[in-house]
Amino acid sequence: MARRRLWSTPDLQIQSPSAEWSGTKRQASRKDEHNMQNLPEFRVGEGCDVHRTIADRPLILGGVTVDCDFGLDGHSDADVLLHAIIDAMLGATGQGDIGEWFPNTDAKWKNADSVNLIQHVWNSLISGGWQLQNLDCTICCERPRLGPWKPLIRQRLAEILDVPEDRINVKAKSGEAVGPVGRGEAITAQAVVLLAKSPKNGV
Ligand SMILES: Nc1ccn([C@@H]2O[C@H](COP(=O)(O)O)[C@@H](O)[C@H]2O)c(=O)n1
Ligand SMILES: C[C@@]1(CO)OP(=O)(O)OP(=O)(O)OC[C@H]1O
User: Fold this and answer.
1) Please, which pLDDT band fits residue 26 given cuts at 50, 70 and 90?
2) Per-residue exposure over 145-183, b if at least 16 CB sit within 10 Å of its own CB, e if not
3) Is the ipTM of this complex over 0.90?
């Protein structure tokens, strides 16, 4: 009886780079193949942000003003969640990050409403043919408890982006009393988006 090998050499043949196997020629042929199959293009992006807590400022999360005895410090309104989502969108489409679009050295963005910032970015993506498949995000803070606010933030995000609510999920996490979040010194947010673009000649 022939003995089966418990390990095997990969079928892949390692070849030295040739003109055909490298650079733009390879990329172009992959892209053509994708287009020929008339497939939608999908892009995933992630974003994160952190802002310091501060007294005497409103706490704005995802475009919702949350009842709280402190807010977040920043050049803009410091909406940590919208900033993370903006970065996820820019990441998905390979367009840098929020600071490149809205530099915190520019007086134009001082106390800016982040709803305007995200709508500016999102409208530009929509013009480029992108649609939101889904958005998942997490706000990390010790206080306030976000249970009652999560549905409102989800609703507001759907409104801001003009997408059905079921494409959006909002989660909350505490800092387990450790680190800057756990000590209430900062609030952080993370976001992941999946974007889709229909093929040129439609699906
Ligand atoms: N500021 C927060 C933090 C968390 N929650 C909710 O508590 C649950 C447990 O979260 P842990 O981070 O403590 O494991 C979870 O369901 C969170 O949504 C919250 O409401 N507000
Ligand atoms: C939004 C901008 C611009 O006002 O300022 P901040 O509110 O400080 O926010 P941050 O997430 O640190 O970075 C992006 C900035 O360019």
Assistant:
1) low
2) ebeebbebbbbbbbebbebeeebbebebeebeeeebbee
3) yes
